[in-house]
Specification:
The protein has 307 residues and is α/β, with parallel strands linked by helices. The chain is 24% helix and 27% strand. The longest helix is centred in the C-terminal third of the chain and has 23 residues. The radius of gyration is 21 Å and the shape is elongated.
């Protein structure tokens, strides 16, 4: 097992993590960025970003590629597809263990973000997805079901239409959709689209490993109907990625880190940043802000220990 000692570990490579790594490197810290997937986080699956200063409109993945280019320009060490097998958050030493590599540092910034909430149905299905940009291409000319009534569901639905799906059905369990009205009009105005509120997915039907239909249930009457579909895209929100530290870091009742104004946690040298933090708004810009504050705070904390 190889070991790597550094000043600061950044766990998570989304906007908060990459920003933290940039600022830490500029502060002349020996920093390592660890990401369990690829850098960019959930922004990679955002079709259009319209609220990031300097870009009136940009594809989420393109924005993250530009941010990653900045990280690389700074010479930050990045480990992608890093499977975390253990995390120890001691007062003096923080340890992240992987399959064949262990990283140790006196300080760590937790930027683990959130993960999509899965559809709660009894039957397993391989044709269930959480990202149209990532997984939508094979459904050109096919029938898809979009679950959720918020902006993500409708934006991703529009992306699927642009890919050329034959039919698209969107269902929302509440009695109305919550996406911006203009987005609703654009999606529901397409002749290929049908929309239903007060509707949930009760189950799916699978034959020889292939999805054939979704079982829809009217929440008002309990009546069930079978809808033939080839793929399902689920946009029911996200839950915090806290499984590595939920027993040692102080969290709110929903599982988000209760970080201070300087992004510090209840453990000295442990900071939280981005969507994993308890906060009012979760945007790319707020994640970038958190990453900046966390890195500067970590550098100050590390400097105080050297005196």
């Amino acid at each position: 097992m190889e070991e790597r000692n550094c000043d600061l570990i950044v766990l998570g490579g989304g906007p908060a993590g990459m920003t933290a790594a940039i600022y830490a490197k500029r502060a002349n810290l020996d920093v390592v960025l660890l990401e369990t997937n690829v850098t960019g986080g959930l922004v990679n699956s955002t079709y259009t970003v319209e609220n990031f200063p300097s870009y009136p409109e940009i594809h989420g993945m393109e924005l993250m590629e530009k941010m990653r280019a900045h990280v690389d320009h700074m010479g930050v060490e990045v480990e992608e597809v890093f499977e975390v097998e253990g995390l120890e958050l001691g007062a003096d030493e923080k340890i992240v263990r992987g399959y064949d590599m262990t990283f140790k540092a006196p300080a760590i910034i937790l930027c683990t973000g959130r993960k999509p909430i899965a559809l709660d149905v009894p039957t397993e299905c391989d044709q269930m997805h959480f990202c149209a940009i990532c997984d939508g291409a094979p459904y050109k000319g096919k029938r898809v079901l979009v679950v959720g009534g918020g902006n993500s569901a409708f934006d991703e639905g529009l992306y699927l239409l642009n890919l050329g799906v034959a039919e698209l059905t969107v269902v929302e369990i509440m009695d109305r959709y919550f996406a911006a009205q203009a987005t609703q009009d654009a999606l529901l105005g397409d002749p290929r689209v049908k929309g239903f509120t007060c509707t949930k997915v009760a189950d799916v039907e699978v034959t020889d490993g292939q999805l054939t239909a979704a079982v829809l249930e009217d929440t008002r009457t309990g009546e069930r109907t079978t809808l033939p579909v080839d793929g399902i895209f689920v946009f029911l929100g996200q839950s915090p990625n806290n499984e590595w530290f939920r027993d040692v870091i102080t969290l709110d009742d929903k599982g988000y880190i209760l970080a201070g104004e300087d992004m510090s946690t209840n453990i000295p040298g442990v900071f939280g940043a981005g969507d994993i933090n308890h906060k009012l708004y979760r945007q790319i810009t707020t994640a970038v802000s958190d990453g900046t504050v966390a890195a500067l705070s970590a550098e100050r904390w590390l400097r105080s220990r050297r005196k």
